[in-house]
Protein backbone atom coordinates (compact mmCIF):
# COMPACT_ATOMS: atom_id res chain seq x y z
CA UNK A 1 0.00 0.00 0.00
CA UNK A 2 1.37 3.37 -0.97
CA UNK A 3 2.06 5.85 1.81
CA UNK A 4 0.68 9.44 1.67
CA UNK A 5 4.24 10.61 0.97
CA UNK A 6 4.64 8.16 -1.92
CA UNK A 7 1.29 9.23 -3.34
CA UNK A 8 2.33 12.87 -3.13
CA UNK A 9 5.59 12.25 -4.96
CA UNK A 10 3.80 10.25 -7.64
CA UNK A 11 1.23 12.99 -8.10
CA UNK A 12 -1.62 10.86 -6.78
CA UNK A 13 -4.10 12.26 -4.25
CA UNK A 14 -3.62 10.99 -0.72
CA UNK A 15 -6.35 8.80 0.67
CA UNK A 16 -8.41 10.36 3.40
CA UNK A 17 -8.33 8.60 6.72
CA UNK A 18 -11.77 7.70 8.00
CA UNK A 19 -12.20 7.25 11.72
CA UNK A 20 -15.17 5.18 12.74
CA UNK A 21 -17.12 6.97 15.45
CA UNK A 22 -18.19 5.03 18.50
CA UNK A 23 -21.91 4.21 18.92
CA UNK A 24 -22.14 6.65 21.84
CA UNK A 25 -20.71 9.47 19.73
CA UNK A 26 -23.10 8.64 16.89
CA UNK A 27 -26.10 8.58 19.22
CA UNK A 28 -25.04 11.90 20.75
CA UNK A 29 -24.71 13.43 17.29
CA UNK A 30 -28.20 12.25 16.31
CA UNK A 31 -29.67 13.58 19.55
CA UNK A 32 -28.06 16.98 19.00
CA UNK A 33 -29.39 17.02 15.43
CA UNK A 34 -32.86 16.24 16.76
CA UNK A 35 -32.65 19.18 19.16
CA UNK A 36 -31.56 21.52 16.39
CA UNK A 37 -34.44 20.32 14.22
CA UNK A 38 -36.95 20.94 17.01
CA UNK A 39 -35.54 24.44 17.50
CA UNK A 40 -35.88 25.16 13.75
CA UNK A 41 -39.12 23.40 12.85
CA UNK A 42 -40.89 22.76 16.15
CA UNK A 43 -41.92 19.32 17.35
CA UNK A 44 -44.61 18.76 14.71
CA UNK A 45 -42.27 19.78 11.90
CA UNK A 46 -39.39 17.59 13.04
CA UNK A 47 -39.43 14.54 10.80
CA UNK A 48 -36.91 11.74 10.47
CA UNK A 49 -36.01 13.21 7.09
CA UNK A 50 -35.18 16.59 8.59
CA UNK A 51 -33.18 14.99 11.39
CA UNK A 52 -31.23 13.04 8.77
CA UNK A 53 -30.55 16.24 6.85
CA UNK A 54 -29.48 18.08 9.99
CA UNK A 55 -27.13 15.25 11.01
CA UNK A 56 -26.08 14.57 7.40
CA UNK A 57 -26.69 10.85 7.80
CA UNK A 58 -28.93 8.22 6.24
CA UNK A 59 -32.24 7.07 7.65
CA UNK A 60 -30.70 3.65 8.15
CA UNK A 61 -28.21 5.03 10.68
CA UNK A 62 -31.03 6.46 12.79
CA UNK A 63 -32.90 3.15 12.60
CA UNK A 64 -29.72 1.38 13.69
CA UNK A 65 -29.36 3.43 16.88
CA UNK A 66 -33.02 4.12 17.78
CA UNK A 67 -35.94 1.74 17.46
CA UNK A 68 -38.49 4.50 16.82
CA UNK A 69 -38.73 8.26 16.35
CA UNK A 70 -40.42 8.41 19.77
CA UNK A 71 -37.36 6.81 21.37
CA UNK A 72 -35.08 9.34 19.68
CA UNK A 73 -37.30 12.18 20.90
CA UNK A 74 -37.34 10.75 24.43
CA UNK A 75 -33.56 10.45 24.52
CA UNK A 76 -33.25 13.99 23.18
CA UNK A 77 -35.47 15.41 25.90
CA UNK A 78 -33.59 13.42 28.55
CA UNK A 79 -30.34 14.87 27.20
CA UNK A 80 -31.82 18.37 27.46
CA UNK A 81 -32.91 17.76 31.05
CA UNK A 82 -29.52 16.32 31.96
CA UNK A 83 -27.81 19.36 30.45
CA UNK A 84 -29.92 21.68 32.61
CA UNK A 85 -29.01 19.69 35.74
CA UNK A 86 -25.34 19.86 34.76
CA UNK A 87 -25.49 23.64 34.25
CA UNK A 88 -26.99 24.26 37.70
CA UNK A 89 -25.16 21.56 39.66
CA UNK A 90 -22.12 23.56 40.77
CA UNK A 91 -24.22 26.38 42.20
CA UNK A 92 -26.58 24.06 44.05
CA UNK A 93 -23.81 21.88 45.49
CA UNK A 94 -21.82 24.84 46.83
CA UNK A 95 -22.65 24.43 50.53
CA UNK A 96 -20.34 27.30 51.52
CA UNK A 97 -22.18 29.90 49.45
CA UNK A 98 -24.55 32.30 51.17
CA UNK A 99 -28.15 31.27 50.32
CA UNK A 100 -29.11 34.73 49.07
CA UNK A 101 -26.06 34.75 46.82
CA UNK A 102 -27.00 31.26 45.66
CA UNK A 103 -30.48 32.45 44.74
CA UNK A 104 -29.05 35.37 42.75
CA UNK A 105 -26.59 33.02 41.03
CA UNK A 106 -29.34 30.60 40.00
CA UNK A 107 -31.46 33.42 38.59
CA UNK A 108 -28.55 34.94 36.69
CA UNK A 109 -27.60 31.52 35.34
CA UNK A 110 -31.12 31.02 33.99
CA UNK A 111 -30.82 34.23 31.98
CA UNK A 112 -27.11 34.09 31.24
CA UNK A 113 -25.55 33.79 27.76
CA UNK A 114 -25.15 30.00 27.94
CA UNK A 115 -28.87 29.30 28.35
CA UNK A 116 -30.75 32.47 27.46
CA UNK A 117 -30.46 32.29 23.69
CA UNK A 118 -32.93 31.71 20.89
CA UNK A 119 -31.81 28.25 19.77
CA UNK A 120 -31.67 26.80 23.27
CA UNK A 121 -35.02 28.21 24.33
CA UNK A 122 -36.52 27.10 21.03
CA UNK A 123 -35.67 23.51 21.93
CA UNK A 124 -37.48 23.81 25.27
CA UNK A 125 -40.53 25.44 23.70
CA UNK A 126 -40.64 22.71 21.06
CA UNK A 127 -40.71 20.02 23.71
CA UNK A 128 -43.16 21.91 25.93
CA UNK A 129 -45.64 21.89 23.07
CA UNK A 130 -45.90 18.10 23.17
CA UNK A 131 -45.17 17.08 26.77
CA UNK A 132 -48.87 17.05 27.64
CA UNK A 133 -49.49 14.45 24.90
CA UNK A 134 -46.63 12.10 25.78
CA UNK A 135 -46.63 10.04 28.98
CA UNK A 136 -42.89 9.39 28.63
CA UNK A 137 -41.95 13.05 28.21
CA UNK A 138 -44.38 14.04 30.93
CA UNK A 139 -42.60 11.69 33.36
CA UNK A 140 -39.20 13.17 32.52
CA UNK A 141 -40.53 16.71 32.82
CA UNK A 142 -42.22 15.96 36.14
CA UNK A 143 -38.95 14.68 37.58
CA UNK A 144 -37.00 17.71 36.39
CA UNK A 145 -39.63 20.05 37.77
CA UNK A 146 -39.55 18.24 41.12
CA UNK A 147 -35.78 18.61 41.32
CA UNK A 148 -35.94 22.31 40.47
CA UNK A 149 -38.78 23.02 42.89
CA UNK A 150 -37.02 21.22 45.74
CA UNK A 151 -33.76 23.03 44.98
CA UNK A 152 -35.39 26.48 45.09
CA UNK A 153 -37.48 25.49 48.08
CA UNK A 154 -34.33 24.59 49.98
CA UNK A 155 -32.74 27.93 49.11
CA UNK A 156 -35.86 29.81 50.27
CA UNK A 157 -35.79 27.82 53.52
CA UNK A 158 -32.12 28.67 54.04
CA UNK A 159 -32.78 32.37 53.45
CA UNK A 160 -35.72 32.16 55.86
CA UNK A 161 -33.50 30.63 58.55
CA UNK A 162 -30.80 33.24 57.95
CA UNK A 163 -33.24 36.15 58.21
CA UNK A 164 -35.31 34.61 60.98
CA UNK A 165 -38.42 35.29 58.95
CA UNK A 166 -40.95 32.56 58.07
CA UNK A 167 -41.86 31.93 54.43
CA UNK A 168 -43.91 29.39 52.51
CA UNK A 169 -40.86 28.08 50.68
CA UNK A 170 -42.77 25.61 48.53
CA UNK A 171 -45.19 28.20 47.16
CA UNK A 172 -42.39 30.70 46.67
CA UNK A 173 -40.41 28.18 44.63
CA UNK A 174 -43.47 27.31 42.50
CA UNK A 175 -44.04 31.01 41.76
CA UNK A 176 -40.40 31.66 40.89
CA UNK A 177 -40.13 28.70 38.51
CA UNK A 178 -43.41 29.66 36.83
CA UNK A 179 -42.11 33.20 36.33
CA UNK A 180 -38.83 31.97 34.88
CA UNK A 181 -40.56 29.61 32.48
CA UNK A 182 -42.96 32.35 31.43
CA UNK A 183 -40.11 34.75 30.75
CA UNK A 184 -38.27 32.11 28.74
CA UNK A 185 -41.38 31.49 26.65
CA UNK A 186 -42.19 35.17 26.09
CA UNK A 187 -38.61 36.06 25.16
CA UNK A 188 -38.50 33.13 22.75
CA UNK A 189 -41.61 34.53 21.07
CA UNK A 190 -40.32 38.11 21.07
CA UNK A 191 -36.63 38.66 21.96
CA UNK A 192 -37.11 42.43 21.66
CA UNK A 193 -39.74 42.53 24.40
CA UNK A 194 -37.22 42.70 27.26
CA UNK A 195 -33.58 42.06 28.05
CA UNK A 196 -31.89 39.39 30.12
CA UNK A 197 -31.18 42.00 32.78
CA UNK A 198 -34.90 42.87 32.88
CA UNK A 199 -35.73 39.20 33.44
CA UNK A 200 -33.13 38.87 36.18
CA UNK A 201 -34.45 41.95 37.98
CA UNK A 202 -38.07 40.73 37.79
CA UNK A 203 -37.15 37.32 39.23
CA UNK A 204 -35.03 38.84 41.99
CA UNK A 205 -37.92 41.15 42.89
CA UNK A 206 -40.27 38.17 43.19
CA UNK A 207 -37.81 36.26 45.37
CA UNK A 208 -37.40 39.30 47.63
CA UNK A 209 -41.17 39.81 47.98
CA UNK A 210 -41.49 36.35 49.51
CA UNK A 211 -39.96 37.87 52.64
CA UNK A 212 -41.74 41.22 52.53
Brief rundown of the structure:
The chain is mainly α and 212 residues long. It is built from 10 helices and no strands.
Keywords summarizing the entry:
mainly alpha, 10 helices, 0% strand
What does this structure look like?
By secondary structure, this protein is mainly alpha-helical. Helices cover 75% and strands 0% of the residues. The chain has ten helices and no strands. It has helices at residues 4-10, 23-45, 48-55, 59-65, 69-93, 99-110, 118-131, 135-163, 169-189, 196-209. The chain is elongated, with a radius of gyration of 23 Å. The termini are far apart.
User: What value does the Rg take, in angstroms?
Assistant: 23 Å
What is the residue-averaged pLDDT?
Answer: 88
Low-confidence stretches: 1-8, 12-19
The coarse overall form would be: elongated
Largest sheet: none
CATH topology-level fold name of the domain at 74-209:
Tetracycline Repressor, domain 2
Q: Tally the beta strands.
A: 0
Which CATH C-level class of the domain at 74-209 is it? Mainly Alpha
Topology of helices and strands:
Elements: H1 4-10, H2 23-45, H3 48-55, H4 59-65, H5 69-93, H6 99-110, H7 118-131, H8 135-163, H9 169-189, H10 196-209
Helix pairs in contact: 2-3, 2-5, 2-7, 5-6, 5-8, 6-8, 6-10, 7-9, 8-9, 9-10
Amino acid sequence: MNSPEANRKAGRPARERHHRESPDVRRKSLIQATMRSIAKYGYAGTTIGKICAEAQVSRGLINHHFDTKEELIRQSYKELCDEWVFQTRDVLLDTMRDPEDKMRAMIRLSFGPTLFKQEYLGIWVGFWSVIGKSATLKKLNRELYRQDREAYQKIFEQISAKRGKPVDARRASIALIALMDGLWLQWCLDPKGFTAEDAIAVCQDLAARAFA
